[in-house]
Amino acid sequence: VQLQASGGGLVQTGGSLTLSCAASGRTFSSYVMGWFRQAPGKEREFVAAINVSSWSGSSTYYADSVKGRFTISRANAKNTVYLQMNSLKTGDTAVYYCAAPARLSLQRVDLGNYYDYWGQGTQVTVSS
């Protein structure tokens, strides 16, 4: 199982970026997919997650710090999850990681230990 994150880069404050995470080795359509980030000198933190339920459709979860600015979505046919980031701030500067669990059960999607597979990370730098 591999997760390949891409789309990072350098952007000015207020700008936008879209990150992608392509999964291979397994079909992830029924699993939660998440995004985390880690800034220099800080711990990894939850950013967003998306779940797909056959009875309730998609559910999305966001950290308070990104709510209203970031949007997580997925394209199951492409086994890909996206993170649309708008109104970027310097505080959003970090390496962004996508992640997926090995289990189908829905648990605390904001906790890193829920996830078993991690992408290599993509750098997002927001300049003032």
Give your account of this protein's structure.
Strands 2, 4, 5, 6, 9, 10 and 11 form a seven-stranded mixed beta sheet that branches. Strands 1-3-8-7 form a four-stranded antiparallel beta sheet, with no helix packed on it. The protein has no helices and eleven strands. A hairpin with a 6-residue loop joins strand 4 (33-38) and strand 5. It has 128 residues and is mainly β. The model has no long low-confidence stretch (mean pLDDT 93).
SSE layout:
Layout (H helix, E strand, L loop, with lengths): L1 E5 L2 E4 L4 E8 L8 E6 L6 E9 L3 E6 L7 E6 L4 E6 L8 E7 L16 E2 L3 E6 L1
Parallel strand pairs: 2-11
Antiparallel strand pairs: 1-3, 3-8, 4-5, 4-9, 5-6, 7-8, 9-10, 9-11
Helix fraction bin: under 10%
Structural class, judged by helices and strands?
mainly beta
Give the helices and strands as they follow along the chain. EEEEEEEEEEE
Shape: globular
Instruction: Quote the average pLDDT.
Output: 93
Biggest pleated sheet: 7 strands, mixed
First-to-last CA distance: 37 Å
| Helical stretch tally | 0
How would you summarize what this structure contains?
The chain is mostly beta strands and 128 residues long. It is 0% helix and 51% strand. It is built from no helices and eleven strands.
List keywords for this structure.
128 residues, mainly beta, 7-stranded mixed β-sheet, 4-stranded antiparallel β-sheet, 11 strands
